[in-house]
Specification:
It is built from 9 helices and no strands. With 207 residues, it is mainly α. It has a domain at 24-67 and 95-179. The longest helix has 37 residues, at 22-58. The chain is globular.
Length: 207
């Protein structure tokens, strides 16, 4: 893999990571409600889910999965239902921003697990990776090394982008002065979770 080819992939995966999705919404929501440390736990969980998809694609299951309509539909509806459920929970949250109280109510381990599920139940991620990776793999060069480079690049870029979202979220949290503002933000993010869940439910398998 040449440096030019890698830079092209770097640009591609950066654009994809910057595009608002369930991971970005989850990171910003967690950053506002649980602070920067909570967001870091959430980001770590997202990367575990992303890494699992990368491994599946690397060993060939991604391509197999992208051709299985039943598998795609099952995971699609599970992911959509989970995001809608998160949205409802977020929408119903009320009150001021007391980070210490919230942290006790939802420990970072639970935030980590929730984020893992957010990425794992997103079939668009694994199907897209299965479609994207082969475009940057040079057949006559060692494929395992190339998959490792692409996978590592994907994870590192996503960590940086999600950290940026988390930083933005913590700054937004500093502007919240009372329960009315927090309730409004909860409903905004809850609505976004439900909207992404609805979009996921309407997604079609890549042909």
């Amino acid at each position: 893999m040449t440096i030019e080819w890698w830079l092209t992939y770097l640009l591609t995966t950066s654009i994809l990571s910057l595009s608002p999705g369930s991971g970005a919404i989850n990171t910003m929501s967690t950053g506002i409600s649980h602070g920067y440390r909570g967001a870091i736990a959430s980001i770590s969980g997202l990367q575990v889910g992303l890494a699992a998809h990368i491994v599946l694609v690397g060993i060939g299951l991604g391509a197999l999965f992208s051709q299985s309509l039943m598998a795609f539909e099952i995971l699609k509806w599970a992911g959509a239902a989970y995001l809608v459920w998160l949205g409802i929970q977020q929408w119903r949250s009320r009150g001021g921003l007391d980070l210490q109280t919230v942290a006790k109510a939802m420990p970072r381990r639970r935030l980590f697990k929730r984020a893992v599920l957010v990425n794992l139940t997103n079939p668009k991620s694994i199907v897209f990776l299965a479609a994207l990776f082969p475009q940057f793999i040079i057949p006559h060069q060692p494929q395992a090394v190339q998959y490792l480079v692409l996978g590592t690049t994907t994870v590192v870029v996503d960590i940086l982008v999600m950290t940026g979202y988390a930083t933005l979220a913590t700054h937004i949290a500093g502007w919240i002065k009372g329960p009315k503002q927090m309730t409004l933000l909860n409903r905004i993010f809850g609505g976004m979770f439900m909207a992404v869940g609805a979009l996921l439910a309407s997604a079609r398998r890549i042909a």
